[in-house]
From TrEMBL:
Protein known as: Flagellar biosynthesis protein FlhA
Organism: Sedimentibacter acidaminivorans
Keyword Metal-binding: no
Family statement: Belongs to the FHIPEP (flagella/HR/invasion proteins export pore) family.
Origin organism lineage: Bacteria, Bacillati, Bacillota, Tissierellia, Sedimentibacter
Recorded name of the encoding gene: flhA
Keyword Membrane: yes
Amino acid sequence: MKKFLNNSISLFIIAIVLMLIIPLPAFFLDLMFIINISLSLIILLTTMYIKEALEFSVFPSMLLITTLFRLSLNVSSTRLILTNSGSAGQVIATFGNFVLRGNAVVGFIVFLIIVLVQFIVITKGAERIAEVSARFTLDAMPGKQMAIDADLSSGLITEDQARLRRSNIQREADFYGAMDGATKFVKGDSIMSIIVTAINFLGGVIIGMVQGGTTFAQVLQTFSIATVGDGLVSQIPALLISTATSMIVTRAASESSLNVELSNQLKSQPVVLIISGVVLIAMGLIPGFPKLQVFTLAAILIFLGTRLLKSSVIKSEKDILKDESLQEKPAESEEEYFRNIDNIYELIQIDPIEMEVGYSLIPLVDESSGGSFIDRVVMFRRQFASEMGMVVPSVRLRDNGYLNPNEYLIKLKGEEIARGEILVDYYLALNPGAITGEVDGIDTIEPAYGIPSKWITKDKKELAEIYGYTVIDPLSVLVTHLSEIVKLHAHELLSRQDVEQLLENLKKTNDSLVSEVVPSVVSYGNMQKILGNLLYEGVPIKDMETIVGTIGDYGSSIKDTEMLTEYIRQALKRTITRKWSEGGQIKVITLSTDVEKLIIGAINKNDRGSYLSIDPEVMQKIVGELLEQIKKLKEEINVPIILTSPFVRSYFRKLVDQFYPKAVVLSFNEIDNAVQIQAIGNISI
């Protein structure tokens, strides 16, 4: 039985197609007409009781099926009307006699009005609404997706909730897209009903006169009843379906069904009912108006309005009493508020990342003013998490009246770390070093990378791009500077809570590994130091399983977090190689054997660990040679990569960090064997 029900729709559609070919007896046709009316009524009531359109997402398909069903009935009824002397069952005859009442002209006029109302008013409006809804839904998809990503990043929703909301957005877009096309079925059905009616009437009259045996008046009477009856039997369900179509595309976001929403919203304005009743009384005083009906309806409206108004007043008084009871306690003064020590802690809370802007930059960052800064930050957070394995905390935005109007500053844990200046109505043209012409503008320095640039007006944008400038908009300048600051200080933004969250995420796939290593082998504090060391040198921490596994292998015998970091870097050599290689090779600057021996000889150890103790003059020579090599190879490499032995790597990194922090220091054990190493420079003294 269950298998039959699952395939009933397919069987029903096949039966509809067969009805177009196989003649139906009058009894069976009557049954099909009643089923058609019932099905249309069910669909209409369903659209009135659902809360949102997606609860009836199969409606476009239902619209196609019901339209095809009506057309098949039209074909079957036409066949009976033309071949059976106008007799096509009791349903058609009843509808024809009831509407005509002996007057064929009146019957045709009523039928024509119903068809035109459906075609011009209901179907046309539903078609337009469906078209606009589909367009707006598709346009709003990116914004909705970013809002979901923002809620997910901030922890307001879970991954499963985000997945469900994304699925609903996609289903909503598909639904309104399907509705845009499905409304054409209703429009075509209305046109087809007029054509079928004309065929039934004219064809029936011709056939009746050719066959003979009856007068023209009898033929006209017979086929007019059959034609109008058939048209009405088809158009009443079509009208119900058209109304259902309009109902489902006009439903806005609701918390309950149409009946409840309509009732609640009408009851919320009792004064409107009273005024309407008074206006009806005034209309009843006009001579000739039916006073009984008008005054009765006016009395009902005034009575309902008065009752609703009285109940709303009582409710308002209860709310006032409730508010007064809550406000009996006088508001605390500032001195009284801070007598509570717990309230003082609010003053010392700091945000991990904070950005303050001058008043001219507020439209760039304020969503209510049309700014998309927050959306861009959300996209950067998603990209950074995907690349580096760390979730960037939320950015607190503030306006600062003490800043210059076009100025902004970035704070890290409450302290200023960078600032810049932006001209809102201009574009920033960056000079990549190979421009073919000059463009007029205001000279400046790009804040994120320190590249010589110019602020140019909008009309010079295309010319600057032709000359080879890289042109970016003001918002991109702001977001790029913020993103570079975050990348540079990611190790400082990684909190103990973030570490715990990363480990909890790993537990979902490898609970035994985390339970074995943390905190028995390494504490949460040392884990934070290790991950911070990796982030400080730009190494992604996305592969937490390898990181924790390596700590489990060496952490029992090695307690130095610096040394553990080196072993982890070697375990992540594929990740490191992918990040710094290009085209299957990696261009490096090597250290001479004398320099490495000198560094190894200068390593001292104590109870707190090991450190490099090297003569300042020798250190200055090494750094000077490094800077000279970088200057020579500036045109060939963007980021200088120094290759050392594994034992020397961490010490040399600390040596050059204070002089050239952008340098990347790798060891031989951190480069995958599949990559070709090309030495393009050497440091020696």
